[in-house]
Amino acid sequence: MKCNIKVLSPVHIGSGERYTASEYVNSKAKTKKGTVLKTINRIDISKYFLSLDDNKKDDFLSNLSETNFNLKSFDSKIPNIYRKYQAINKSKNEIGIKQEINEAIKTLNELYIPGSSIKGAIKSAVLYNALDDEMIEEISHNVINHKGRVDNKKYTNFMNNIFTSDKKYPAPQRDIMKFLQVSDSTTIKTPTVYDVATVMASYNKGNNEFYSRNKRTHEPTLSFLETIAKNKKLSFNINNNYDYEVFKRLGLDDKKHLIDLDNIKKSIFIFSKNLIDYELEFADNYNISYLLKFYKNIKKMNTLDTPVLRVGAGSGFLSTTVGLKIKEYDKSLFDNIRDGTRGKTYDYSFPKSRKITMTGGNPLGWIQLSFEEN
After folding, report:
1. CA–CA dist 5, 233 (Å, integer)
2. Which residue in 74, 89, 110, 364 is a FRET match for 338, CA 20 to 30 A apart?
3. Domain span at 142
């Protein structure tokens, strides 16, 4: 089955690499409608270096060792043949010379969403929908210790009981999720760079503030991320390879419903619905108007046939664990996990922070899915 993606807010899935002004030059470009955009031209430094004469190479290497090296100051007219790719710069704040930009994962310099990221988000939703009171009670008594910390070995056993059979095969072979195949998404050519800040619940109920390392100016601490921009469209393929004989041999026949595509859509819808309601409550409690507006909008978009899902950076504790389900069933256990996770207590919302783009005030990572037969 083909699944179409509409990006509802900037998606960042990092490559683990970062770069500074020593590897790009700021520029401008015109759209077909005549709008002027700020752009970042990422330069192939090795290719560019080899094009220089010997004297220029020595000069370049000498400058490159300086912490404030700015490639554009060294050469303001680098030909486009040395450009790896171009990014649109939608940062509200100027990107400093030493400021690092977090690169998005790419293939052949084009951005995509890895199938593993999509599948991981789907698994969280399926797990959330599968949990019942009895399972929460098991977590409470056998997985979480008195300090609110997760016992990793017991958590693994708990997860195995949900997704794997008790047959004597290696765990990966008898994991039902192995039979759910999710491809990498299609690609887009142009990343969009945003400056991202952390908005936090304040000690004063009804207020919010940005996280800042600067005790004098209290300016927000920013990170700069390459993203797949809002409204971009991609697609991927999803299949559940059901084979009666294989499932019977592995003892998985009673778990096949977990990877049924209707169950997957229902699980994503329910998980996201509850997560959105939680985010609406957070935004309302702390008077964060832009988050309130965003979540009211995507709540209307979340349906059984076109569920919304969160992937990549910014997903946070509630999107990647069963924390929200635990809070629903056992508030005291959730509070215990909250305290154990943070190592300290506070009497206001948990998690207390959200990452948002400074331009537009969007949380990261929301996409909408729609399914069609191949």
Report:
1. 6
2. 364
3. 115-191+230-372
